[in-house]
Amino acid sequence: MTSLNFEEFISDFSRFYILTLLYEGPCHGYSIISKFKRRIGKEISPSLVYPFLQQLEQKGLVKHAIKHVGEKEKKVYELTEEGKKLCGRLFKRFAALVSVAIEPSLEICASCGCKVYEGGHKEMIDGRETVFCCKHCANAYKQERRSFT
Question: Contact, 78 vs 64, CB < 8 A?
Answer without folding.
Answer: yes
